[in-house]
Amino acid sequence: MELQQLQQIVIIAEEKVLSHAAERLHISQSALTRSVQRLEDELGIPLFDRTKNSMTLNEAGRLFVTHAKHVLSDFQKLTDKMEAFKKRKLALHIATCAPAPLWKLTAELSTAFPDTTITSEMPDETDIISLLLTEKANLAIVRHPIDSEAILTVPFIDEQLYMQVPLTDPLSKQTSIRFSDLSGKVISEYVHTGFWHQLHRDLIPNAQYIEYQDLMVYTNVMISQKPLTFLTELAHTLRTDVTGCACLPIIDEAATAHYRLAFLKKNKSILAPIIHWISKECIHW
């Protein structure tokens, strides 16, 4: 007995005319007749009273339809629940301490795991552990190993900070710079950069910052006005061919972030395919 046969009997009962039921089921009337006959042979009892021109449900048929509807309803509920479970399982909420590694990660994941729903947030760095432990995030991008028996971290990627320096600035003659070289400078900056935003102010306290809240506006300013500004290799903003500017690496140790992926140990088996793929592929990013 197959679910398809249960559905066929129910639809025949609803349509009352075999040809109409066959049309609704998108099969031929002869194929539907053969399927019903196979089911009756298996049950060992006819479900219809037949005449030359018609077939109507008998008492056994009506009993069959009543219970078939319950089975089909339960099967649909089961299917819906499994689909909902699959969607929850494939939903990935990422908390990150900086935007650039998140942009790179989501772009690559969306291609490799197209059925995975990815959402994200960039909270204060000190809140990331709490988000993982309360399962408000199931994956996080952090800068350091986490001292918690419940959380695992694995190496991810590095981010090197650079500086776009106008050729009118004496710094452009150097091959590299340090944060201390930027003291007193006017620096244009996109403000939503996670931990980098405060780190810049801690290490270059005497700089004057022109802040941009809108990424599109900031990008247009970078291209059109060519200001002194930070660049990163992870966000495709690193350009060495910008007319009128030099692109210099910042060589202070703090200018390189060594990111790790963090997740709950108990979710290791669920996240294993994604974590394994990232670990293998990120060396090429």
Short synopsis of the structure:
This protein has helices at 3-15, 18-25, 29-43, 59-89, 99-112, 128-133, 195-203, 215-225, 268-281, and strands spanning 48-50, 55-57, 91-96, 117-121, 139-142, 151-166, 186-190, 208-212, 229-232, 245-249, 256-264. It has 285 residues and is α/β, with parallel strands linked by helices.
Secondary-structure blueprint of this entry?
Blueprint: H1 3-15, H2 18-25, H3 29-43, E1 48-50, E2 55-57, H4 59-89, E3 91-96, H5 99-112, E4 117-121, H6 128-133, E5 139-142, E6 151-166, E7 186-190, H7 195-203, E8 208-212, H8 215-225, E9 229-232, E10 245-249, E11 256-264, H9 268-281
Parallel strand pairs: 3-4, 3-5, 7-8
Antiparallel strand pairs: 1-2, 5-11, 6-9, 6-10, 6-11
Helix pairs in contact: 1-2, 1-4, 2-3
